[in-house]
Amino acid sequence: MPVFDARPHFLSTVDAPPLTLADAVYLPLLSLGPASGPAPVSDDVEEGAEAEADEDGDGAEWRLLGFMVVDERYARYYVRWTETGEVWGLDFCMRDEAGTVDSRGGTADMIFPALASSHDLERFQRPVSDIRCQAVYDLTAWC
Q1: Under 8 Å between Cβ of 143 and 102
Q2: Following CA atoms 39, 44, 49, 55 in sequence, which dihedral angle do they give, to the nearest 10 degrees?
Q3: pTM exceeds 0.85, yes or no
């Protein structure tokens, strides 16, 4: 069986497509959202879905509720922390200081739960009033 080195093809494919602003918004949605699809709108349905997730051993600690583009550089993602039921806003970068599209929001599923479960998230709380959530956390430092 012949063996070919696919690394050059893989690297040129990965580096070739330019990222768009839509990609920068979508990556945290993919990262924070459930693998099975979007979160249900109804609280009753959501509680049933959370119970099913716990029975399945999924153990999801949050539910993605939605997002909002704050300005030309940031987007806020709303999650409900299942342990307390609180809704939090998480700010992630869409663009860096130079205006280049930033794709590092795709690591939100690694950053956010680590900070929340170790109670380090409070260090990133912003003094922002948002009627959609109890607290806003600035995770742009991680982008």
Answers
A1: yes
A2: 160
A3: no
pLDDT at 134: 93
Q: Is 20 exposed, middle or buried (0-12, 13-18, 19+ CB in 10 A)?
A: exposed
Place of tokens 């918004």: 25
Q: Are strands 74-81 and 135-138 parallel, antiparallel or unpaired?
A: unpaired
- Residue recorded with tokens 């494919």: 13
* CA angle 17–19–22, rounded 5-degree value: 130
The DSSP element (H or E) to which 30 belongs, if any, is: helix 21-32
Average pLDDT over residues 40-53: 48
| Distance of alpha carbon 96 from alpha carbon 90, whole angstroms | 17
The residues near 124 (Cβ < 8 Å, ≥ 6 apart) are 115, 137, 138, 139, 141
| Range ranked top by mean pLDDT from 9-18, 42-51, 53-62, 74-83 | 74-83
